[in-house]
Give the backbone structure.
Amino acid sequence: MNTLATAQRLLRQLKHDKRTVAMLLAMPTLLMVLLRFVFNNEMAFSKAAPAMLGVFPFTIMFMITSITTLRERTSGTLERLMTTPLGKLDLLFGYALAFGVVAVVQVTIATLVSVWWLGLTLVGPLWILLVITVLDALLGMALGLFVSAFARTEFQAMQFMPVFVLPQILLCGLFVPRESMARLLNWLSDVMPLSYAVDALFHVTSSTEFTGTLLRNLVIIAGCALLALMLGAMTLRRRTP
Amino acid sequence: MVNSVVSVTGLTVKRGGRPVLRGVDFEVEPGTVTGLLGPSGCGKTTLMRAIVGVQIVEGGTVTVLGKPAGHKDLRDKIGYATQNPALYADLTVTEALRYFASVLRAPAGDVQRVIGEVGLGSHRDAMVGQLSGGQRSRASLAVALLGTPQLLVLDEPTVGLDPVLREELWTLFHSLAASGVTLLVSSHVMDEAARCQRLLLMREGRLLADDTPLGLRERTRTADVEQAFLQLIKETV
């Protein structure tokens, strides 16, 4: 009940900020278009695009959520909510629901434009591609929620983007295949959730099979998102110094 | 006292290693308006946070409505308005209140009632972020009035308001008290003290006095609370 009310409230806040809505919905798609023309070649685009479909929404949702949560903390509304019967998980799942809706719309537009117009070759079924990208955006959202607990100011929250997101992008197998990385980097890549999203995206664009590995990757992404949400709940305190 | 709404004994709080409350004891009786007065930085807000149950305390006990402060059962029984209005700037007044109403499980009609009570009827569809400081603090006060709180903890609710509105809010506070609600209202404006049934004067983390306005003036042989405050400081030095 309160989860729904919280999600509704967040979406209302977004609705009043038309520019943010426009950017949220268009940004990943525009970046995909840009990528397509940078490569200027459908084959090369098809190679990099799946990973990008994971990376862009992941990054954007990470930023949006960490800033929104931080604003909730600094404006005093979080403290006020913590004096009410609202449960911590109500708040976090409310966030997950609201930004999940945004993620679904954002990712669907980017994926459909990439497949139908930009010439992304998709061997596997479209719905799996959508599921992976949505899970991936939710993962970004959950991580953003979690790390915002460690930011005191908006400046710090912005800095978390390069700290938490860029290493994942560098190590996810987009630039260099994960198998050919040095052992330490390969290990780091193994513990970063974005790697599994990118693996899954490469798989679904090149194969029709629904393999055990694909399923495992999906479970890992969803599990990491859930874990980050739970850790986020632990950072919400009813009493503060 | 058994039927006190708020009962504080030996409360000490440190913030950032510095003692903010140094052993505070008092009781608040039901259906009264108690004024918490003192200069900025004397610990009023910290004391209120401790009563609401969001402050980590060092020692002592705070009991509210028979339960330790911060108890789960108290969450829909206490209305709290912070000094800095805590509301969503990117929602309209009605939308922001509607969210808090549903979190507090208050009936749907409550939103319009509290908007009327704080005199924001003409701004119900204005964005919170576009309100003036005084309007915003009234909107924040409105959140505290949602539902049926038994205790209202209001941190400087009348700052920056014009005299007519201030008068209206005090009338509202007294009518709430008459209906059985207990109010603890902080202020650093001494002339608001006369409107309270009981006064807690604070300075540097300690209570200087806990008395009625009349009792305070008689004891210190002064004409108003400001003078009484100065007299008390002289006596304690």
